[in-house]
Amino acid sequence: LGDFPTSNTVVYPLKWIKCVLRWYWPGAVQSPDTQVGCVFGGSCVLPCRFQPNGDTTLHWVKVNGKEVKVHRYSRDQDKDQDPLYEERTSLFHDQISGGNASLSLARVNLQDQGRYQCYASTTHYNQETFVTLTVTAPVTKVDIVLGNNTVTCQSRGIYPRPQLTWSVSNHPATVLQNTTEVHEDDQGLYDISGSLRTVYNDTVSTYSCSVHNEHSARKATMRLHRKSLNPENCQK
Length: 236
Hints:
By secondary structure, the protein is mostly beta strands. The chain contains 1 helix and 17 strands. Strand 8 and strand 9 form a beta hairpin. The radius of gyration is 27 Å and the shape is rod-shaped. The chain has a 6-stranded mixed sheet, with no helix packed on it. The chain has a 4-stranded antiparallel sheet with strand order 10-11-14-13, with no helix packed on it. A 4-stranded antiparallel sheet has the order 12-15-16-17, with no helix packed on it.
């Protein structure tokens, strides 16, 4: 009968086979990385679960190219780690016995982005999972001001790199003279500023500036009353 199964052949579902492999040989079936997004300067949790069984040693390692020791736990004590992560990481100690090896990371910065390995070693099992961490710094505020017939718009501390766009009531902003500048600060965040020449001889104009990237956006609007020379600002 060649390769065809006989009546004595038992065909097991692939899902069942994966479950057996995970039980007897953890790590044999690699699960996709868990994706975690963190806000710059804040705190977030990198999740990790394992099957508890006896003495437990936990390793968190950043594995982008050169391995970096993030956190190590053994015999109820936290161990050595790279200076980049000192006093910024912690485990949920009261939950380790239940299989929770999740890592809390504080004061997140752009250098924290990358792939992390959670490795759990117990009396009978070795297990590993991976987490990919991305960091964003959202647009939180946009300032818009008027001076010398020019409207200026700016925002600071953004990541990834933002863009700035204008809209003007009753006029296509693309035909107006405008400039945009983007600068990167020493933390890797972006500051952006743009200026737009006002429309000549308008009695009432509304200028809107939007700062945005793929994760966030903010808009500021200025209603300019030329007769009173009294601009009104608002943000959205």
